[in-house]
User: Fold these one by one.
Assistant:
Number 1:
Amino acid sequence: MSNQRRDFLRNAAASAVVAGSGILSGRTLAAAPASEALVTRSAPQRVIALEEHFILPEFVDYLAETKQNIRPELFDKVVPVLSDFGTGRLKVMDKNGVDFAVLSLSGPGVQIEPDTARAVRLARYANDRLATEIAKQPTRYGGFAHLAMQDPKAAADELERCVKQLKFQGGMINGETLGVYLDDRRYDVFWQRVEQLGVAIYLHPGNPPDRPHMYQDHPDMWGPTWSWAVETCSHAMRLIFSGTFDRFPGAKIILGHMGETLPIQLWRLDSRLKISNAKYQIKREPSWYVRNNIAITTSGVCSDSALRCALEAMGRDNVMFSIDYPFESSETAVKWLREADVSDADRQAVAWRNAARILKL
Ligand code: MN
């Protein structure tokens, strides 16, 4: 038996023991066909992940909005894991070979807070707390700013403080804020600052302000299964179709979950916009903005075919690895990254090179 084959079997056995060990992992690793054991792939030189969440005691109540999306007994298990910045989190990273994690508050956080002053105050508090944790592990953790989008100017100022003083990598926004989407002109002040700072904004899913009739009697479709992709991809469409990226060409957003279905839609978006009742005239075809103003992560989608589509549609420079810890299994995600059927140049780009460039790490 070759060494490669022996290693494969040993790894496969180890995987079987801990398969599905992600807190909310509903899947187990499929056994690889025997022939794959002989395929040599270069390991990622580094692994950077950037949709990796935490929670603080003051923000657990806001999680109730997300809690409705999944089975309650699973959700309760996740809070202690989210709350740990130390040994538990680092152990999972070390065991799976994750070198660096950009941490973000598990949503929706203060974005559902009706009191704007309180939202602004708590967002600042969350960012200071995160900075304290990053300072303890500066070679392992980075951060995305939590932002009170109820006050666009305050959000812009807080983003600037987080980037310049706390050395964060950008910001994360959990969908709409009290019914307002980011293409609203009141956010021009925010996008202008994003452009000036040269950082990316991770547009993370959140629930919409209303519950469309289409989801009636289907709690199974609500949340990460389906409605989050519709909501978040539509949010990105609003930014494109409203000309936000014409006004702020240097603004960049990041979409998780392999682009929330966006990579497969580009041809049709370009084709059908031409016959639509467009309200705004945008300068270029939608796919151009997707490739120039949007990057995506692989969080929660460990699929070779989806990755190849994303790389081809978005361009190799625009796809980054992520896990969505602790809602997804780190082991499943990293094992897939190592073995995915893409070129080794693509694998290095996805594993760390693009994140290092886009997040200026
Ligand atoms: Mn997430």
Number 2:
Amino acid sequence: VFTADVVPQAPEDPLFGLMAAYHRDSSNLKVDLGIGAYRDDQAKPWILPVIKKADERVRNDPNFNHEYLPIAGLSEYCLAAQRLVLGTESPAIKENRVCTFQTISGTGAVHLGALFLSKFHPNQSHTKVYVSNPTWVNHHQIFGNVGWPIAIYPYFSTESKGLDIDGFLGTLKTAPEGSIILLHACAHNPTGVDPTQEQWKQIAAVIIERRHFPFFDTAYQGFASGDLARDGWAIRYFVELGLELCIAQSFAKNFGLYGQRVGAFHFVSAPGAEATGTNRRIFSQLAILQRSEISNPPAYGARIANVVLNDPELFAQWEDDLRTMSGRISDMRKGLRKRLEARGTPGKWNHITDQIGMFSFTGLTEPQVQILREKWHIYMIKNGRISLAGLNSRNLDYVAEAFDDAIR
Ligand code: PLP
């Protein structure tokens, strides 16, 4: 029988514990380098100016109401999300090979994809989902929750603090044919290390050779480089090669719509005469899964995103806002590296500016992270990952001084 007594205590989420400790700390020197959300130079959450405008437009629309959305979500939004991730000229869109569902942000999109594959994969118990070492921790939980055995592929080189491309390709080559390979489209979380376009080509070649199934997670398009096409390059390249794949897309970071839970899941089927029929079958099954999980996706945030994605003037303003965010992050990277090099802090610091996106794997060790927390009131995850969004013009000097102290 089931009773509450059989439920064991779960371990505390490390990020949650970190945040609680940060909030308890009463020092006015404290710095939060754990947060996974953008902060402006005043260390405050930033509502994108374009989102303010779009929000007003949604609110003042005389036809606005709180009705349910369709099961697949707001259809114009879904089409715009497709165009954004795949490019307006995508062959997959033209050939009606993309099936899109609005989801509960990126997390919901990864989950819907994982669930869909678990339902329809002909041999789930003998197939593994390969994730990068390390990856966003939730990947392990989401795929694990729907029964996927998980394996890892080498990704981060502790030596170079860049990509271990040989290890990565080696594992792709030896993984059983037809494995599912989870890929971060850009701004890899937690390392900030992305493959170059040449490396993506090598990765795609092995995936094709071994008939693996690529599953892209794109949570930072435009936020990484400030350029939507550049950050979408890898996915578009895979689609151009004719690969069948799926994509989990989040608009949390690039629109700053974290709590609104705006995302999409796309299944892109391979080119072929039966594309429309295939799309219809996939749609019919995703509709059943979506219905049983959430019935209908949340409307408000998707309406805001929809306004921006479908209005050329607001879209251009959004691109400016993306450059503001990615530019500030990039300035913080340069600022931190410059200060550490100026101090002669032991080690090499080029990886701080080579890495991209919100996060950086600094190479700081657990004892150093401990010193930063106890002596300097600087909070970050034990693995040495920092969120660049926690840096600003007022705390850069202080953080560099503290890193220098902890490392020596
Ligand atoms: N995937 C990656 C790699 C992420 O870093 C995140 C957010 O941190 C997500 C997905 C999903 O986030 P959300 O559910 O807020 O869109």
